[in-house]
Amino acid sequence: MTETVRPESGAAPAKKAGKRLTLERVFSTEGVHPYDEITWERRDVVQTNWKTGDTVFEQRGVEFPDFWSVNASTIVTTKYFRGAVGTDVREWSLKQLIDRVVSTYTKAGLEHGYFATPADAEIFDHELTWLLVRQYFSFNSPVWFNVGTQSPQQVSACFILSVDDSMDSILNWYKEEGFIFKGGSGAGLNLSRIRSSKELLSSGGTASGPVSFMRGADASAGTIKSGGATRRAAKMVVLDVDHPDIEEFVETKAREEHKIRALRDAGFDMDLGGHDITSVQYQNANNSVRVTDEFMRAVEDGTEFGLRARMTHEVIETVDARELFRKISQAAWECADPGLQYDDTINDWHTNPETGRITASNPCSEYMSLDNSSCNLASLNLLKFLKDDDTFDAKLFAQAVEVIITAMDISICFADFPTEAIGRTTVDYRQLGIGYANLGALLMAMGLGYDSEGGRAMAAAITSLMTGTSYKRSAELAAIVGPYAGYARNSEAHLRVMRKHQAANDTVRTINSVDGAVHKLATKAWSDVVALGATNGFRNAQASVLAPTGTIGFMMDCDTTGIEPDFSLVKFKKLVGGGSMQIVNQTIPRALRKLGYDSEKVEAIVAFIAEHGHVIDAPGLKPEHYEVFDTAMGARALKPMGHVRMMAAAQPFLSGAISKTVNLPETATVEEIEDIYLQSWKLGLKATAVYRDNCKVGQPLADAKAKGADKAVAPGAGAAAAEAAATKVVEKIVYAPTRKRLPKSRTSRTTSFTVGGAEGYMTSGAHDDGELGEVFLKLGKQGSTLAGVMDAFSIAISVGLQYGVPLQTYVSKFANQRFEPAGLTDDPDVRMAQSIMDYIFRRLALDYLSFEDRSMLGIYSAEERQRHLETGSYEPIEIPEAESLKADPPVSEVAEVIEAEEVASPVEDVAAKPAPKDAHTSAELMEKITGTAVDSPLCFTCGTKMRPAGSCYVCEGCGSTSGCS
């Protein structure tokens, strides 16, 4: 970034005398480097665009720990390894990447007086390395891009700019924003200082208004994107609700959405990335309205609200507050913009009001601070702190936070910034953004519903502990290297906000001993914060946010990003050596065991989830436990207010805000959006964004939608197409099935069975080649209604089999059917059945289908299930006959045989089976399972369906994001 600068002044000077930071080893082992404690392996990374078939990246022989997933290693290799591919300078090992970053941090810590001794610096180096290589946390993407390279040492992903009411300032805004986009980051700003189109210029003319200048900035962002980036520019535009042009601002993107629909219906290509979408304006930014308590109270009361001139602050127009609020909600219903930012709440938690108000946010809405500032982020993987007894290791979590906050603060000492103003403010206020990912997976593993009192209590306690520990370490660092330069003038306000956090912590109502233990530690941390802060001050004006964690979430192998719930219960997984699997979330069996289910019930429930993608009517699962398995999409998708309530639980314990979109179904009404915006304000959120499914035309959706009525035709081709349709002759070809009769004498087997106390017999006959050809069932007394129905059913199945209906089809249709009698059976291979039909077709599958066909249906014998528990594979390991007489091979050799046979079901992957060939991500997999489209854009890099991450989207295939890194 050619404009990157490093401030030379303004930093608080490091103290030359007194104590320094002494560290104890918590994670690493003395005398052993963290790399030497793990097993490393070489992999080939080849990335393909699934839509075009083109190879977009290839690097072979890269080195990663054996427990890193293929997806994580692919994303790190393609995104973060530096150096030209195919040259000697190209990084090829995760060790090189981590060493490049950690050594830079350690060296800067020594140079700026953080560590008491070189030995303490070495401990810091090893602790940080241990946490990174084991995926306990990750820095934000710019750290991996830039630190330790020849590039400017930019460590921040989040920027806030400012613009005043002058042409010089407006043109400078275009310039600064452009350089930030060029570097791959995003920025936000508030346009409310610009005069409205209803005010006069000093020359006597009428002002253009901020919306007109948004057009120029939008075009600039789009041009820079198309000039070199593979995703849209990330930017946030904010306007105060009392600005006279507020209605024009609110309706800007909704009007463009109407234009998109009209052009689409006329045959133009209006998909995201389409040839004609560039003719539409204002598409490169998220828009937010900054509302005040005064305005929200006017909405509640149904009174008028005054719009004020920018220069004189006089009311020049009054509007009906409810009508304006309705227009905001209507626009959000139509196109997902604008979101709301709650100005008074934001500034009530502001630690630096004497310096200036908080007027804007970064593009994803989690970083809110002073104008012309930046924030570097890092996120912890919460699931790593879940102990074997299903309790959260609060002490270990706090110790990790201390190491990470120290590193984040050190980075500001050597960081470069895109503008001098941003650099000066960041160095003077040292804003940090520690956060977390995998909350949804953690709560599920602990048997807690995302939208439950228990889930919210745990989230609140963890967030409180994280921020309390961060500020405690910040106060400790202030005693060593001094408080931030702006602290003296803001000390009273900063301490007031610390007491507000402490008071909010006191209001948390824990549910059980698990969250109680976390909360107890958080209470101690906040007590220390207030005491130490009063003596030492603080090193950092801000400490925490909850970011989207898109790309770095995949780097840490997280199931869920940021504060989000789990996306789905069934996931897509890539395999070493190629191929992919469809697996049930690894946290589900753990959650079921936590809820008290035995192994047989766990197996049956997991098998049901593998087939249906949800838990409704899963065998043996109590309805009161359904909420634990609620997800972002699917049959039991979380209600919109469930998202809002979780955000409200965490918000009082964050310096910044939360990047998250409240998803609504396509059938949601404008009134529902109004209620979400109103409740978010009442619950104390700092910002809220909504997205109604299928509200935007300008993005590629699933094929199921694309092939429907919305499919566009080329301009001018309508008449020709209609004429061709009218004259087209269709040749009808009739395929008549033929019956394959059984021989007069055939092999058959009779099986007696008991299901839930009901007894029966099944006789099955096969062709000479072993293929099933007939089934006869005996239940009830001869001549009874039940016996007659079963005879008719047997004949229907037998005739169908002989006419070529595959047994797999019958099994997939009748297995898992649920009705009485149901329950335990006397068959060791099928220990529990949901009905007699469920048992019969599972037994037939075991008797007549191959292992490969059964594994696709998730049906295994008792021997195969036992083998899976012992070796991680359902399938037997084939050893050559000559080798079978030798001694047992080493475990490593067995592992090689397994890999060679492409057995892709490791121990942790429950009910794994090959993924559909046309599914390349979890989003696409869920579309196949549920038959419904996921309303997300396609990735520009690899062509697969992205999924929501905070306020933007992230690609599960390559890690690309639609917003800031």
From TrEMBL:
Pfam families noted in UniProt: Ribonuc_red_2_N, Ribonuc_red_lgC, TSCPD
Catalytic activity: a 2'-deoxyribonucleoside 5'-diphosphate + [thioredoxin]-disulfide + H2O = a ribonucleoside 5'-diphosphate + [thioredoxin]-dithiol
Domain Ribonucleotide reductase large subunit C-terminal: 156-691
Annotated TSCPD domain residues: 743-847
Domain named Ribonucleotide reductase class II vitamin B12-dependent N-terminal: residues: 44-135
Top-rank taxon, per record: Bacteria
Presence of keyword Nucleotide-binding: yes
Keyword Oxidoreductase: yes
Gene3D superfamilies associated with the record: 3.20.70.20
Family annotation (InterPro entries): RdRp_reductase_class-2 (IPR050862), RNR_2_N (IPR013678), RNR_lg_C (IPR000788), RNR_NrdJ/NrdZ (IPR013344), TSCPD_dom (IPR024434)
EC top class, as a word: oxidoreductase
EC number(s) recorded for this UniProt protein: 1.17.4.1
Position of the signal peptide: none
Keywords: Cobalamin, Cobalt, Disulfide bond, DNA synthesis, Nucleotide-binding, Oxidoreductase
Cofactor(s) the record lists: adenosylcob(III)alamin
Family: Belongs to the ribonucleoside diphosphate reductase class-2 family.
Descriptive protein name: Vitamin B12-dependent ribonucleotide reductase
Organism encoding this protein: Nocardioides bigeumensis
